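Following the same procedure, sequence and fold were stored together, as reproduced here.

>
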Amino acid sequence: MKRAALITADEGKTLEFKKDISSPRNLLKTLVAFANTAGGRIVIGVEDKTRRPIGIDNPLDEEERLCNMIADSISPRLVPSIELTTVDGKTLLLVEVFLSSSRPHYIVSEGPEAGVYVRLGSTNRQADRELIAELHRSVEGVSFDELPMPHLTVDDLAMNSIKSSFEDIREVDEKTLLTLRLLIKEQGRNVPTKGGILLYGRDRPAHFPDCWAQCGRFIGVDKTRIFDHIELEGPLPSLVDSIMLFLKKHAMRGADFSEVRRKDVWSIPIEPLREAVVNAVVHADWSQRGAPVRVAFFDDRIEIENPGILPPGMTVEDMRAGVSKIRNPVIARVFRELKLIEQWGSGIPRIFRETAAGGFPEPYFIELGLRLRFVFPLTKPLKIDEEQPAPQSEERLESRLESRLESRLAAKVVLLIESQEAGKAELARELGHKSVSGELHKQIRRLIALDWIEMTVPEKPNSRLQKYRLTDEGKKALDIEKEQK
C-alpha cells in the first residue's frame, strides 16, 4: 500500500494511527499485540479521527527515543522496522512489526503473565493463561489436540461411538486409533490424545467441561427474551447434525411457516450454515475455559460463535481468500475422514459463494473478546408468533437422545418402544417409512450392542414374532435424559 493511501485506510487488526508517542504504554501494547497476532503497522504523526497528517517534530530524535523505549520495555527482544516517510509535506514515523517467532512478547513492567496482549479487530486484548499457552504451542508447532493424556487409557475412548462413525469407512482397531491420532505412544504405551477425548471421550465432561454447544432462539434482535434453548453434548461429529436440527426446527417455526420450506428452498442458508458450524467445531480453541460453541437464532440473523481468536498470522481477509491454518489437526483429520470436511481451506470461500447463489445477504466475521463470531443476516425477518407454545419437551428429549446416540433415527426408535414393544415393520410404519430400511436395521443393531434395547425372542433372532423393548440399562439412561431435559 502506498504511504499516502495508508493514512486513509481504516484502523483494524494490522493498522493503527498515533498522534505522537506521548502515551508510550498504549503504543507498546499495540506493538506487542501485533507481534503476537498477525503483524501490523503503526503510523505516528497522524490525527486519529481526521487522519490528517500533522507530522513529527525532531523525527530523528523521536525515532531514537522510540527504539530505546521498545528495547527497554518489551521482552523477548523485538526489533520492528522503523522508517521516516513524508505525506503532504509532513514527516511521519512508520513502525512495522511482523508476526514474531519469539512470541509471546510482553511488556516488561507488567510481567510475562499480565503483560501479554493480542490484537482483536482494532483493539488490544490482554491474553489469559490459556491463550498464552496457545501462543507458545503455535511457535513450537504443537497443537493442543495432539497432546497426550498420559493418565488415561484406551478404555477412556467410547469405542462403540468410534466404530459407529467409521462403520462404512474403515475397520477400527488400535492401529486405526494411532493412525487417526486418537491414541499416541507415550512412554511405551498407547494413551489418548486430547483430540481423542474431545472427539470420543467416554467421560469427556470430566476432562473438558466446556466442550459442548449451546443453542438459543431469541425473540427479537437481542438476547433480552429467549424462546427456546438447548445444550448439546456427545461426540463432536454428532454436534453438527444436532445444531443443524435446532436451526431447521426454528426456521420452520417462523410466522411465515408456509414460505419457510418449499421444494427444499429454505429461508435460512442451510448449507453455508452447516459449513460454518463445522468450521466452529473444528477450529475452536478447546483449551479455553467457560467457552462452548454458541449458536444464536434471532429474528433477523443467525450467529455462530466459537472460542478462540484466529490462529497467529491469520486475518479475516485470509480466511475469505481460503487460507487455512488447522488449529486442531486431530479433530480436522477425523472430520475429513467422515466427509464432514472437503478440501482444506475450501469451506469459507464456499460459504460466501453459496450464500450469494442462494440470494442471501453476505455473512461477516467479528472477533469479539477471545471468540470468533460468524454472522448470517436473513433476507427478511423470521419472527416468532409469541402466542405459539414453546417447543414441546418431547422435542428437547429427542434432541438430547440424538446427541447421545449420534443418530436421530436411533433416538426415535428408543422413544417409540419406550411404552410398547414393537417389531421392525411396526417401527418403520410409525416412522413413516414405506419399508424397513438398511439404516433402521443398522440402528437397531447398534442399540442392542449399546445395551439400550433387547429382543423379546433372543433365541430366534429372525423370528417373524420378533419385537424389541428397552433394557433396564436403556430405561435407566432414558430416565437420566428426561431428568435433564
